[in-house]
Design goal:
Bound molecules: pyridoxal-5'-phosphate
Radius of gyration: 29 Å
Mean pLDDT: 93
Strand order of the largest sheet: 4-12-11-10-9-5-7-8
Number of helices: 15
Number of strands: 17
Distance between the termini: 74 Å
């Protein structure tokens, strides 16, 4: 047989590996058919001008992996036992998944196949929502504690640990939540996960059947809407106003859960008033639905103390509370938690174990020590102070340079909502002008918001994050934006 082999002595891959890969490819794509005799090692070595030992080693490995079989005295033959269906020439080419095709029946039906990816910092000044300031990350303490944690590590790095999380961290989180959020939970109810996103996946696996109805605020957080949809849930929008979710509009029956952001409605920024909190909890008790409370940015509250979390008011064990360190420390850490009611602890821990056998140990150990030593509280105080000044700088700059605008949703969190006046540019036009000046601003639809397919009411609404920018950067960004708009 003439086999078109090409070995390159200058390639980084050794000759032996090149020859192995090429012969294996020929077997897999059927060009070397089952039962076909391979050239003798002597012939092939001579044809390729390489050492016979090299060819012998390759044949041996092809034999060991099952691609060829040696027949005593007769040489090497392509294996006849490879399943025909495995031979590539006979297989169908893979087709990329396109959720917009009619024959696609998977969970993302009809959606654009988009996922979050880190975006390049194309803009000099970027008001992206939800981003903390890398310059304020407590890197010195973190580095020191990381080294200490590794020095102290024993079996934790080599064994499976509790899938619910590191007990020290669960203790520290439970203590923090009791004081900061009025949450009543035993540390065993706290399950450490890779951020709110992972918590939503655990919750969906725990509580949703395909076709289940999931209530969300409208508009809501895209990451939640898409996660629930991906489990086959049907989303039921309930409108929000300046006091948060309009609880009176909750569906009377049939919902498996309601996903809400009571501290700082995402994306519009309202705080859910007490009366509606109680109404929502009563609804959950009467209908048997669960409530998922996403408290993603409640560490940031400026003028007033935050309202007690829904979880702290819940007497019926209906609330699953989740929050994250993505805002207070950084999203790259992938650290968050979900607090489940006592009757769900066992099954939630099992779901978590099925997903990944528990969160990585080292980050948990560092964070536990960081909180225990009081660094976290100190860091939060510092951040809150900085963020409040940044928020004020942004609000003032908008009102100064864009008179007639309305700014809302700024009592807490790390972003505010900017309603442009009716007689000027809309949000997309302003974004285009900003991009030309190197300033990133985001219409609501591009700020991780899910608008239930109806962007029109928000054509003049933007959501701007301010936590990652200094006051100077904020002022100069809005000034540049006003100039670029013309
Ligand atoms: C409403 C809401 N929930 C949760 C998160 C954070 O998610 P994670 O903890 O997965 O980083 C964000 C981040 O932007 C958010 O806006």
């Amino acid at each position: 047989v003439q086999i078109p082999l090409h070995l390159d002595p200058r390639a980084p891959q050794p000759l032996q590996a090149q020859l192995f890969d090429q012969l294996r490819e020929f077997v897999l794509d059927g060009r070397l058919a089952p039962g076909m005799r391979l050239p003798s090692t002597r012939e092939l070595a001579a044809a390729l001008s390489i050492a016979r030992n090299t060819v012998m080693a390759v044949y041996e490995r092809l034999g060991a992996e099952g691609y060829v079989e040696a027949r005593h005295g007769a040489g090497a033959f392509v294996s006849t036992t490879l399943p025909e269906s495995a031979l590539r020439g006979l297989r169908r080419e893979p087709v990329p998944i396109d959720a917009r095709r009619d024959d696609y029946a998977g969970p993302f039906r009809g959606e654009r196949p988009s996922v979050y990816r880190p975006r390049s910092a194309a803009n000099r000044i970027d008001f992206r929502v939800g981003k903390p300031d890398a310059r304020m990350f407590p890197i010195r303490a973190w580095r020191q504690i990381a080294a200490l944690s590794l020095r102290r590590a024993r079996d934790e790095l080599t064994q499976y640990n509790d899938p619910g999380g590191l007990p020290r961290l669960r203790d520290a989180v439970a203590r923090h939540l009791r004081i900061a959020r009025g949450i009543r939970a035993d540390p065993t109810q706290v399950i450490i996960v890779a951020g709110v996103q992972a918590a939503l996946n655990v919750i969906a696996r725990l509580l949703l059947q395909p076709g289940a109805r999931v209530v969300t605020e409208s508009p809501t957080y895209e990451g939640a809407a898409r996660a629930f949809s991906s489990y086959g849930a049907r989303l039921v929008p309930v409108p929000v106003d300046g006091h948060g979710l309009i609880a009176g509009k909750l569906p009377r029956t049939g919902a498996a859960l309601a996903y809400v952001t009571p501290s700082h409605q995402f994306p519009l920024g309202a705080t859910l008033i007490l009366e509606r909190r109680l109404e929502l909890l009563a609804w959950a008790e009467h209908t048997g639905a669960y409530v998922v409370e996403d408290d993603y940015d409640s560490d940031f509250r400026y003028e007033s103390a935050p309202l007690t979390a829904l979880q702290g008011l819940d007497r019926g064990e209906r609330v699953l509370y989740t929050s994250t360190f993505s805002k207070s420390l950084g999203a790259g850490l992938r650290l968050g938690y979900v607090v489940v009611p006592p009757h769900l602890v066992e099954v939630a821990t099992t779901v978590k174990a099925l997903l990944d056998n528990g969160h990585p140990w080292l980050e948990q150990a560092i964070l536990a020590e960081f909180i225990e030593r009081g660094h976290f509280e100190h860091h939060l105080r510092r951040l809150r102070k900085a963020c409040m000044l940044r928020r004020d700088a942004l609000r003032n700059a908008i009102l100064e340079h864009f008179p007639g605008s309305r700014v809302t949703g700024f009592e807490g969190g790390m972003h505010l909502v900017w309603q442009l006046p009716n007689d000027g540019a809309d949000a997309t036009t302003l974004q285009g002008a900003g991009a030309r000046a190197g300033v990133g601003v985001y219409p609501l639809a591009q700020a991780h918001a899910h608008l239930y397919g109806n962007p029109t009411p928000y054509a003049r609404t933007l959501a701007l994050g301010y936590a990652a920018l200094s006051e100077g950067e904020i002022r100069s960004g809005i000034r540049a934006l006003a100039r670029a708009r013309g």
